[in-house]
């Protein structure tokens, strides 16, 4: 068993891990314990981290290959490892609710799994909170692993072999126009609808706002199934809302969790979080 101080949340998933400073050089044993905790709990919160971008990226590399942030990559071809979540510009100014970046981020208020629209979707996101609103600004999480486990056996058998198309332009053009070069860089991608954790064999389904259709099914039938799976996973009593404190570093498992921003008043508060993502082990269609 892990030597980490792991305190499970009472949400059916998630854990608080105290007493570990992620900005120091971690031992291989610590990193392995974190990997194991990701597979077990799906969501890990490490409070009071004295984080910097440099330490954040170094820690990210301990968990795998960092993912190039897709917006900058799609628009300009440049590789950057960080995304900024919230309404604070690089120069430190606050961007209000009408600002294009703030509006664009409203797309994150739909349930999603980060980078599910990429051929190599994200394994985990690692997010550090630097500035948090005095009110609102939480992030809600839901477990598609727990939801899969709660499905009737006949529904599990129906969905197990299916493939699902995830499509960024489909989901995000609902909230704001997608830059043409960005859109062209993200063609629709086919994934397994049901994925299995390689360590513990637990299955989860893989839906969210980017999930557009089921391969071989009509639009209406696809929508009905995808909406039903999303609704089952995100029943309010089964979700956990993380209320950020400055200094929190949170890791979430995009293979089996959904998340969404709960919203906040961007005209009143500053919210600044930095995020890296670790790329998945391979295309989901090649997962065993
Ligand atoms: C994210 C995300 C929503 C929010 O950080 O990937 O979707 O605003 N965040 O909390
Ligand atoms: Mn997200």
List keywords for this structure.
seven-stranded mixed sheet; single chain; 9 helices; Double-stranded beta-helix; alpha+beta; 288 residues; binds manganese (II) ion; binds N-oxalylglycine
Tell me about this structure.
The protein is α+β, with helices and mostly antiparallel strands and 288 residues long. The protein has one domain: Clavaminate synthase-like (Double-stranded beta-helix), CATH 3.60.130. Helix content is 27%, strand content 24%. The chain contains nine helices and 15 strands. The protein has helices at residues 28-41, 53-63, 70-76, 100-105, 144-149, 153-159, 168-172, 180-185, 219-233, and strands spanning 5-8, 15-18, 43-46, 83-86, 122-131, 139-143, 163-166, 189-192, 194-196, 203-205, 211-214, 240-242, 249-253, 257-261, 272-279. Strands 1-2-3-13-5-15-4 form a seven-stranded mixed β-sheet, covered by helices on one side. A three-stranded antiparallel β-sheet has the order 12-6-14. The chain has a three-stranded antiparallel β-sheet with strand order 8-7-11. It binds N-oxalylglycine and manganese (II) ion. Manganese (II) ion is lined by residues 108, 112, 114, 259.
């Amino acid at each position: 068993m892990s030597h980490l101080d792991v305190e499970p949340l009472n949400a059916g998933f998630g854990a608080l891990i105290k007493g570990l400073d992620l900005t120091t050089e971690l031992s291989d044993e610590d990193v392995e314990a974190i990997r194991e905790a990701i597979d077990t709990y799906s969501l890990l919160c490490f409070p009071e981290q004295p984080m910097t971008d440099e330490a954040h990226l170094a820690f990210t590399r301990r968990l795998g290959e960092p993912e190039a942030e897709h917006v900058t990559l799609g628009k300009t071809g440049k590789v950057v490892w960080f995304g900024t979540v919230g309404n604070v510009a690089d120069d430190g100014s606050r961007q209000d609710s009408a600002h294009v970046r703030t509006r664009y981020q409203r797309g994150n208020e739909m349930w999603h799994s980060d980078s599910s629209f990429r051929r190599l979707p994200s394994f985990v996101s690692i997010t550090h909170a630097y500035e948090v609103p005095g009110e609102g600004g939480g992030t809600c999480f839901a477990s598609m692993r727990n939801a899969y486990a709660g499905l009737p056996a006949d529904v599990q058998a129906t969905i197990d072999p299916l493939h699902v198309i995830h499509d960024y332009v489909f989901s995000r053009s609902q909230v704001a126009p997608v830059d043409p070069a960005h859109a062209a860089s993200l063609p629709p991608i086919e994934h397994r609808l049901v994925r299995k954790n390689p360590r513990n064999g637990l299955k989860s389904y893989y839906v969210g706002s980017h999930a557009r259709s089921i391969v071989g099914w009509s639009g209406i039938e696809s929508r009905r199934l995808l909406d039903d799976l999303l609704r089952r996973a995100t029943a309010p009593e089964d979700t956990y809302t993380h209320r950020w404190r400055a200094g929190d570093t949170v890791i979430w498992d995009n293979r089996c969790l959904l998340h969404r921003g709960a919203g906040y008043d961007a005209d009143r508060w500053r919210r600044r979080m930095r995020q890296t993502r670790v790329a998945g082990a391979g295309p989901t269609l090649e997962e065993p």
